[in-house]
């Protein structure tokens, strides 16, 4: 074993960084998505099927179908008679869905026989990339390249019809937890109960008579008195119930006064025993079908099946529900007495859970399975009574279309509309952003809130203290989604649902736990704490500290799941143990009671030598995961110097892990104004770079890539840890005013730098066309190369085509040229095909519509069943032009104001001219001191020939940079004397000149500039079309019209609104002033006395629509001007 004397104390922070590096080597960015989906495939889908495992028939009591097992296979596809493994790249190229078959084993009856069938296909499950069922699972780098996949791609998304879709994490309130909230000046206590078999919701509030009533969707609107429910569950007296609620409270008198009206109502209603209470509740329920049953039986079934459904009923006893309801009433009363401490905070992250892909797909699958079972039942009811030669065989009717379509449609559209579970959400799944590698990673960590975005409430949008370490404080959008859409922090993990059977067993073995069944109500005044495990009451804890230490020791020793949370709440007098899904957890190093942490130097050395990894440290009890609830019971030190012996329980691993993926690439972010870091999080996703290592093999509909990407001279530790792909370059920047074209954040570019390749990018686009085979199999779409006369005016239209009728790669293509020359049969119906001996074809090819010239990059031909798909990818090389957008990593965005020749720009004594000139007025108001630090550190790094560190709260200090400058005979500030390129004289002041990292963003003039004279019009109104993509007109709106009116420019108004838009000449009768058609007035019965008038066609359309309504507008004229 390594000895501690070989370890140098000044290497501790670097050693901690090795721990974080090991974390990213063992944990993927999308691990929370993958774990959730794997948990659903292994456990969730089986739980759903076991809860809906039997189908019966109303017409035959002996007929049934029972699911014995369910499993999801490996992704595969059948091409004709052959079946082969399906890869994600094949799905992208062929527009397929990356899915695997769902097999079930069933037991069913056929006549009098009971049969069993295995491996019956009931649907296809979309497979998440990198999950355990994916072909990429556990593959090494070489195998990824063999499968044409990028080894840096994190997975965590689906491929539906060739499009990459990611299911965003959905923020929801915790289930099976009691909350006290204040709604419209009224305090309510509620719990949402979620169980596999049943879901319900329970409320407590005061009625007009100050009596506590229980409300549920099966209860009448006025609710049920709480004491009636107490007695129906337990049969105890009012005194015993009241004593349990008031136990060990210093404010018993106040609580009793609030309970008194409810007790009096119970006495007045003559609810004295368990039977009378059940009858009282049963009579409250209006069930027309249950009129023949005894009210007590109805009340019993109601409590059993609809009240607190997440709490199991053992031996037909409601005692667990009774204690749970008593605790709930106590919470409700205390919220009225002490609202400041007892009312829960909706925005506290300990009160929230995240729904991930596994949970959300589980909702869709459960709904689809219930509909599938209903479909099978209806088929059985229809065919069983019919007399047939052979018996009804249900397996012939069990198809896979319903479940497959439900799953694919939900992920493809993003609409989770499930009436059964009262779920109606849109935008749950979205197209995975591939603008850059960073945009892809950022989208996989995005959290979507269900809070309405149009509301102006600031609470859910604010940066809460509970966000520390689990939500990025900088990465959130601007506008209406600000604060509602969030991103996970670097080392935050989302828990999956763990088995809690071992937790229950350990609690039952503890001497500090009294089960609720053994609890003596006469001892209710003792200082006992309720014990809840995943919202289910277990009993009472007698010694709080020893019990929590007992469970935490078991967690650290690996006896219970590592994401288990154990926390106490003194105001609730309760201990909560949670192992449910959706909790945000974060790792911390454990600190011993003597003030020393458990991470020793030898552990760090083992990590360096790859003898241990991060997961090993968790298993050894050195590091543990805490959620936000347990964090409230802990005392966290930021570093070793902050540890307080006897108080500190944990120490932070690295403080920079409080940031998210996008914010972590910003150098020195702690020196910037906060909004600037937020702007960079948005613009970093729009920066051009490499989207993946296999981008040349992909067929994305839109792809931006920079020609010469570079790594920055100032990097951060997280960038190197999660294999960030560069998206920018290191130009030499001079900070000075120059020419007046650099106002308002505009920059000046060096033309020579552009000629040498600076910021040059490629834009790849994709177009596709299908060659269909028609239903009668007699004809299909054709490809052909036209034989044209050399002098034909259409020759240039087919210039790019090869002999097979498809554009040739590396051929330059212009507007209106043909990329794929397809011909389709000119038929209306199949019958017409049989009637004609020779089929006529018409041109129906793929035409290049862009006004900018492109180059054909590649052509992909694939088949899907009997149809053939041709995809043509073409590219454009874009040099920077005036108006293109650039940005630094500090949220300072700007467009190119001018491009000057190198001879006009200033240069240093070494002959270095700046690639970019930036106006210094961009610093004072933005307060981006971090950019100044990056400038200094970048120049020092270039002089020394190294990479400097710009990690938050740490990194290369300015003192180190000044020393490097001094050693290389430079001014410590990085400034230099420059010579004017225009006059040849020294500039009067020193100017900073040096390298800094700049990003070229996707916003380019070539994609936005638009103008037209004549062009297409809409058929209905004959006005110009709208939008650049349709070559539309430039709209003069209401505000522009008001300006023209204010200036009295009446002729300009007429030109804009009529002459350049939809001018139309009509004839109007002088006698009746109506519009006439065909030079004949039907009202006057005359062909004479007409005016020819020019009016907007839209006005003429309005007049005709009024005619159709029986309104005949007549137009008068001033004949002096005619």
Which spans of ≥5 residues are poorly predicted at pLDDT below 50?
Answer: 1-10
Number of domains: 6
- Total helices: the number is 29
From the alpha carbons, calculate the radius of gyration and give it in angstroms.
Answer: 37 Å
CATH architecture of the largest domain: Beta Barrel
Describe the protein in words.
It catalyses: RNA(n) + a ribonucleoside 5'-triphosphate = RNA(n+1) + diphosphate. Residues 1014-1033 are annotated as: Disordered. Keywords: DNA-directed RNA polymerase, Metal-binding, Nucleotidyltransferase, Transcription, Transferase, Zinc. The protein is α+β, with helices and mostly antiparallel strands. A hairpin with a 2-residue loop joins strand 42 and strand 43 (867-878). The chain folds into six domains: 28-167 and 353-428, Rna Polymerase Beta Subunit, Chain: C,domain 2 (Alpha-Beta Complex); 177-309, Alpha-Beta Complex (Dna-directed Rna Polymerase Ii 140kd Polypeptide, Chain: B, domain 3); 498-579, Hypothetical Protein Ta0175, Chain: A, domain 2 (Alpha-Beta Complex); 664-760 and 881-1000, Dna-directed Rna Polymerase Ii 140kd Polypeptide, Chain: B, Domain 6 (Beta Barrel), CATH 2.40.270; 765-787 and 796-827 and 840-878, RNA polymerase II, Rpb2 subunit, wall domain (OB fold (Dihydrolipoamide Acetyltransferase, E2P)), CATH 2.40.50.150; 1028-1109, DCoH-like. It contains 29 helices and 53 strands.
